[in-house]
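Q: A reviewer asked whether we had any structural model of the full assembly, not just the individual parts. We don't, so I'm hoping you can provide one. Inputs are below.
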Amino acid sequence: MALVEARDIVKIYPNGVLANDGVNLSVEQGEIHALVGENGAGKSTLVKVLYGLETPTSGTIQLRDKTVHISNPQAAIDLGIGMVHQNFMLVDSFSIAQNIVLGQETTTLGGLALDRQKAISDTEALSEQYGLFVEPAARVDTVPVGMRQRVEILKALYRGAEILILDEPTAVLTPRETKDLFNAVRNLVAEGKTVIFITHKLREVMEISDRVTVMRDARNVGTVVTAETSEAELARMMVGREVFMVVDKPPVEHGQPVLEVRHVTYINETGRTLLHNASFNVYESEILGVAGVEGNGQTELVEVLTGLRAATGGGIASVDGRSVLGYGPRKVREAHVAHIPEDRLTNGVSVMTTINDNLIVDRYYRTPFTRLGMLDLNAITENGNTLVKQFDILTPSGELPVGSLSGGNMQKVVLARELSSSPRLLIAAQPTRGVDIGAIEYIHQQLVDKRTDGLAILLISADLQEVMKLSDRIMVMYNGEIVGVFPNTPDLTEEKLGLYMLGAERQPAAEMEQYL
Amino acid sequence: MKLNSRLLSSRIVLLIVSLALGLVVMFAVTSRMFDGSLDTMKDTPDYTSVLLVNGLIAGSVVLFVLELRMDAVRVVLTVIVALLFGYLVTAIFNLDSAQRFTRGEFKVSLASDAAVPDVEDMDIQYGRARAGDFNNDDQPEPLEEDRYRFAGSEGDEITILAFAARANVEVDLQVALLDADGNELAKSTEVTQEQIDAYKPDLKSTKDAAITNYTLPADGLYTIHVKPEDLSQSQIIKEMLSKTRVAYEAFLLGPVDRVLRWSFWIQDALTLILLGLSIAIVFRAEQFSLGAEGQLYFGALVSGVIVLSFGDVPKTLLVPIALLSAGTAGFLWGLLPGALKAYLGANELVSTLMLNTIATRFYEMVLTFQLQPPDAGYTASDWFPSSGQLTPIVEGTQVTIAVYVVIAVVILTWLLIRRTPIGYEIRMIGANIKFADYGGINTKRTIMLAMAISGIVAGLAGAHLGMGIHRKLILNISIGLAFEGVVVALLARNNPLVVPFAGLLYAYLRTGARFMESDANVSFEVVRIIQSIIILLITAQALVTIFRRRRIRRRGTLDLDLEAGANGGLPPSLPAEEGAHV
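A: Here is a predicted structure for the entire assembly that you could use as a starting point for your response.
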């Protein structure tokens, strides 16, 4: 008997987008049910329907074989359905206990005062029961992300959730925190709860789930028992064709150093040192991966190197011997540095501008795009057409705004522009963030091919697996400092890197020197 | 390709539609101006120039439709909605127009061939008349009705006339004859045409009242009771509507009534087009600079001083020099807030408003203490020498060669924005300044240049006001004209090719309002209301765009991805908002 069943859910958004096209989902009592699919496959819409955030155009939801109408989240909560959103919905300035009991507080003095003690003891009891460790009295904005997520889960449990929907819960976690989360999820199931787990990381699906429902193009492709499937099969179901999860990465000897960074420091306006004394090289035909939990100086490193931020103090950074520190983005680009920015929508593209115009932002002022002080529209269109073709950007015309493209195709626009600028060094920050599997595969292969052809690549990614898969060497950053540099040999494990990423270990200077 | 041929055919349809619309507009304007008569047209001096300008109007319509496509419908709807609101306001303004039938000076006369009975203290007697003024709000106690006693004898044949005192008084009277006990013996609310003819010149319209050849039944005292007729609901509404119609006709058709009125429209449109272009440039760069007002003042002042000082220089040299200097003055006065914004982070809205005040006061100071002739009765400079005036292309009007200047500026602005590297930079910092920065564009320099270039155009608008329209420098040469330029730029979606249409449209409304004020005595404020509604509606539309953009930024690719998924991976053709065709 299924606990929750969604039958023939159709959801058409007011703008005419068909997000769910007859989707069926059946989740059984006490299981961990993974829901996977590429961005835009309709996973989020489906769970929004389950949680009452969206009303389906047609189709029914059955809970314990009874048809229910979930018109808003409160109705869902009353029915025992809880949801943990990707972006946490917590009051930052409240304590954890206050957040958990928010809206259902026990009051004293006839409703005039909140019973804080009871809030704390309730939280402690709940935390104990499900093995989800939190500090009840701490303010939310002072605790790490992993704990905030546990607060969200406890909040749902406090409201009597029997079914928990977790929307991409691991996207913000380190490997260690992910492990903790998985243990907690297993505890929940042991306590009789049911979990719907949304992700697009197949390895996690294999590790945690009992069954998997795969979605593609607004439909569910199928539901399989995890033990009877493989990552490759799931990927094929998601993409609709064979996916080669392994990149073809021939071994090459690296060449001369292209980027040389020495003693680069960045201190922000409030006096915090966000990047401390960074020194490293990136060589021809090499991918240097930067591992680290986000917010440990990677962003600052990239922005200092690309001229978006001025370094503090007297470090040196040079590309092919040409100094790039202290110059703006134009000078840096003219030193043959290409840059895939971490936030595609803020820096990488201008969504309201055409694809063709997006593809010339670094070269519009040079021939053939500008002749005699006037733009040559034919050259611009031709450049656009060539790159759209060469990089497989799915669009009917280069005259459409970039905003009309999917995330993967937007990233291909960035990639096309940056790789076609004949760079010597590519700084790629989060190159596959928010991109579907097909595009990830494509981007990975492009990066590796270019590296084989001699490009020096500095790869920054929050996805440790990506770093390990692509890099020739791996540099770990913690708290604004480089705490370790390792050649990417098979004996380098995620666990080992994890220790460095969390600051638990630090490579001795002499050893680091050896791998610079 | 199928897609291409479909695009092509839809483009051809659009072209035909726009050309047809343009021709209709041109024909309508021209025929109205010349009362639909070719002879009248040919008798008009410089009628070919009029036709040329009307042809340019048609061209602006074509560009408007071609550039904005479906958005053009939205703009037109916006204006129609605003006009409807304006109609309502005008109607409310005219609510009391029927009241004029209840007020005004009147006379009552009593006539009879019989002898006057000898009774003292009567209000009126045979052969006499009385006068009064109904509902005059200037009096402490307005008169609402009046009664006159008189003495009569049995068998006296009397005639009572109640009529408006003068031809232009519209009071609608009723008169009744009462006996001593107050019983109504006879009553009249209107008169016939025969009676008007018979009792000239007292009776003038059917609204007067008359009791003619009435024979008194007995000796005694009688009372004449006269008052304005009560207004009926339908009369009130009918009056309101007819007055509103008259006002709106003056508003909507006034500017094309005859050549002189048309010229007011065109000269105002030229100013607004220049200012709209100026604002469009800065808005394109997402800089909310309102400095056009100050730049206009400097442009007017510099060009004015030059033509006043070098009147002997031949026109072909003086006019270009004056225009160039006006542009340069505007450029510099725009560069200043641009530099403040780019290098010191000063908010451009605040700094330009402050600089506007400085520019205006400086202009007033120079005008009052340097340029004003000592014997002048009011603050203004001397007339510009004829070598310093823009040559009219339509005789007897101020429609000058500024028309050609404006055409050139429209084309140059369009080229600047669409076809030059600096235009690309302006568009990119406007669309996403962080992207521009990342791509290597010098955003500070671009901000500064955008504001300075916009100043050139505003400076030219100032020169047009001085050298073209007023032909001297006057106090308050512009009262917030730059802000009208904002409306024009908003209407045109900051697209230089659409600005001419938007400027013409908005100038038409402004000029129409002037004629509504003079012809129908409806306040010019009505046009302010229309203007506010246009701004509200357009900013509401702009908000939709902003929200959409922000949603794309915040939610990443979610919505668009959904679309892509639903269409089997092919990205949908988004309604091209700004980037695709502007």
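A: Points you may want to mention in the reply: Residues 2-33 of chain B form the longest helix (32 residues). Residues 555-582 of chain B have pLDDT under 50 and may be disordered.
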